[in-house]
Write a structure and sequence with these properties.
Two copies of one chain form a homodimer. Chain A is built from 16 helices and 19 strands. Chain A is of the alpha+beta class and 473 residues long. In chain A, helix 8 packs across helix 10 and helix 9 packs across helix 12 (334-341). The first copy, chain A, is globular and about 75 Å long. At the A-B interface, helix 6, strand 9, helix 7, strand 11 and helix 8 of A face helix 6, strand 9, helix 7, strand 11 and helix 8 of B.
Chain lengths: 473, 473
């Protein structure tokens, strides 16, 4: 029996032969959905319980084999698939998709890591409660992956990232021990914050197998408005005004550049755009615990005040849920419209909200100087200081050529500008393999040294998701 | 020159002779304010800058000397003073009390760790903004201490603990390096969450020297109400109703047992108590971004609905800021009233909110069986599942005798009940020396092992606040 044969036999013992995949088309587990990384797994293992995850980790430990934990495999940075060596085991959490329980009076729910985000939202909604994490991949990403990458999305302004929505974790350690940290407590000061260390560590420190999540009462009404703003400075001014007027009722504040909305007009002409083109368009969302009428009245008063102050030039308040959905649909169509326009160089950056206008002005100008005619697809979560500041080839230049020839230089300009404003090169997508080398250049050496010490402390053999986040030695 | 003499000389070089205290009455730095731990420092060092903190740590490293970081020295668990050996240096951050900057458009402020909490609140208020962390010691505790202990307080229900209010940290490591993690970003997924590892680590992993904090718009109105409830189950029902009706406008939900409010009546008869005695009394606070009238109308509708459902038997809405302050003053007088009544055995526990009624019923009964006539001073932050479940000697029994003879048995009953409900033995005060041994008994061995590995990774020589949180080997 070969060495791999021994491991496969042990994995089969751990999870049953039906759940150890070594043959056939495994590309759903081996290739990321954007098809940037083509890996080859030694085996794909699909445990059905936390105990089985622990058994898989122990088997891999005994054979000195590395593990790549995987949820919905919807990540954007190459953190959830195997490398091309054929020596790594993919541990897919997809079969662990049970809602373990909902505690309505405590406003918590406990779920398996493999639950699809949308299923988590729906289980909460079935009890009249809200799990607010929301992002484009919610129909296929898993809550374990959301936590492993500290996912962001559209509701961060009010509810925080995945990190802020999690009270407790269950984790299988590199040694195959189970840490039951599934606490439903809002206050617990008994030692170091292990929970937040695993959240955002992209499967490199332990394998999240379950989580206790925060829930909220469902709002009585959710409504949206669209506002045309003359400049990014005005957009920031509108944000301040909206935060003061609506307080925590302001649950969304998305900005869309004119070129980005123009791509939606071009590729999806059937989508209504209620406002005429403006340099920037803002989508505001308000969640109200009283009524739709109350929300609309607050919105109208806010937008009137913004008009008076010259912060906006035009606005439209959605008159129905259908109209609200249409406004969100506009925003959500930008990524698809830009794909239809051609490949582009994507960024997921954040700077302090107050620095966004200066960042955009300086970076737009620097890119235009370096690449005359370059087209900028700017949009994102302005309320969180997070822009998807994407760069498209000048009209007429082949997108693939532009990517091949210019990506490095474009990234250098963008990341230099981000760092000059005290920003982050990965606001919500993580590091994975994609930004690992950039991280070494951009992160403080003191921080990197502490990160390496922590990796060494919790996974000394380096068997968990090697080469992600940190370079393998 | 003695070994200590060499160190003191080096410390003098680092911070100037005026800021190295070795003589005279140093009890303000050596004894905790509740006078439970009487320590003796080798020296008290008061650096004036982050660079000086780093120089102090390097000097102590060179001499193999342990350091005890100290803020306002208001902690409750023996984490901020030296032991009695006379070999530990107290590093007091009190001179580092500068507000480094406020970024109103980003809703952040950056401060030195030694800023007193109240000064932080006031600096925010001066810009029309709110820093919501609020607790009894706010006039003398420091923000660095608040972060090192992940302080809670009265606004956690809406705004979270100190952890949730911090975006970035500056930390001096055990090696005397400075980590500049002073980010004002709401989204930053570039590697492991070092920030949250230091928050709540009680100075055992590094020394917090600065922080970037989240601010909020000031609400237009803050108002309070008092409600008499027949049972703890009704109090939890009222909380659910209030959360659904007021949403994030509900910023405080404190519960007070009849015996606790009775002590206030007895020792502070001049304080008005607007409601007749009831088994439990709840203090609700609402922060409104519209107006006082709007807040009052919402409160009245809520309390009417609660009356109709039998959740409350009586209620009073404060008609002025003065009346609101009076209601808070009632709540805040409980700790002093119980001190005047005599020593008692204090707890700072949390359980899921839904489990509070069962916890209180079972624990009250178990204590009464073990100690007939025992008096329970129950009050706390019900909205967070956090009770200060304090135990007073039966009437007529000397408090000191009761403490001496019964504390261990009382704690065993309380902590067994807490753990049976999935709770925490330290909700907001931390571990320090006080609960270190209890932690070993109550925390999962897997968690303890990870905590020890992290301590070893970041402070291998064990020089930072030794013997706190974790036993020194």
């Amino acid at each position: 029996m070969s060495l791999n044969g021994g491991l496969v036999w042990a994995l089969t013992q751990a999870v049953g032969p039906a759940h150890v995949l070594t043959d056939g088309d495994l590309s759903a587990f081996e290739v990321d959905w954007r098809k940037r990384w083509f890996g080859k797994a030694l085996a794909v293992v699909r445990p059905g319980s936390t105990a089985e995850v622990a058994a898989v980790v122990q088997a891999c430990k005994a054979h000195g084999t590395c593990l790549v934990p995987q949820g919905g495999n919807t990540g954007l940075v190459g953190a959830s698939g195997p490398d091309a060596s054929g020596t790594q085991v993919v541990l897919s959490l997809g079969r662990m998709n049970r809602v373990r329980g909902i505690d309505a009076a405590n406003l918590t729910m406990t779920v398996d890591a493999g639950c699809v985000l949308q299923a988590v939202q729906e289980a909460a909604a079935a009890q009249g409660l809200l799990f607010p994490l929301s992002l484009a991949a919610e129909g296929s990403c898993t809550i374990g992956g959301n936590l492993a990458t500290n996912a962001g999305g559209t509701q961060v302004l009010r509810f925080g990232n995945a990190r802020e929505l999690c009270l407790g974790l269950e984790v299988v350690t590199a040694d195959g021990d189970v840490w039951d940290g599934l606490s439903g407590l809002r206050k617990d000061n008994t030692g170091y914050d292990l929970r937040d260390l695993f959240i955002g560590s992209e499967g490199t420190l332990g394998i999240i197998t379950g989580a206790t999540l925060k829930l909220y009462p469902q709002p009585a009404a959710v409504t949206t408005a669209l506002a045309a703003v003359p400049s990014m400075g005005s957009a920031v001014g509108l944000l301040q005004l909206a935060q003061a007027r609506l307080g925590p009722g302001l649950t969304g504040f998305e900005v869309m550049g004119e070129f980005a909305l123009g791509l939606v007009r071009k590729h999806f002409p059937q989508l209504p755009q209620p406002l005429p083109p403006a340099p920037w368009t803002v989508l505001l969302e308000q969640s109200d615990c009283e009524s739709a009428e109350h929300a609309t009245a607050l919105f109208e008063a806010l937008l009137e005040a913004a008009l008076e102050r010259g912060l906006i030039t035009d606005a439209a308040v959605a008159a129905s849920t259908q109209q609200s959905n249409n406004l969100w649909h506009l925003r959500e169509s930008i990524p698809l419209a830009q794909s239809l326009e051609g490949l582009n160089i994507k960024h997921d950056i954040s700077v302090p909200v107050s620095k966004i206008p200066a960042f955009v002005a300086a970076t737009d100008a620097a890119l235009e100087r370096a690449f005359p005619g370059v087209r900028l697809v700017d949009f994102g979560h302005l309320g969180d200081g997070n822009l998807h500041y994407n760069v498209q080839a000048p009209m007429g230049q082949a997108a693939a050529d532009f990517l091949r020839d210019c990506e490095k230089a474009v990234n250098a300009i963008v990341y230099d500008a981000v760092c000059a404003q005290g920003g982050s090169i990965s606001a919500e997508h993580g590091i994975g393999m994609l930004k690992r080398d950039e991280l070494v250049k951009r992160k403080s050496p003191v921080a990197l040294q502490m990160m390496r010490a922590i990796k060494q402390a919790l996974d000394p053999a380096g068997r968990l998701n090697p080469g992600r986040v940190l370079q393998t030695d």
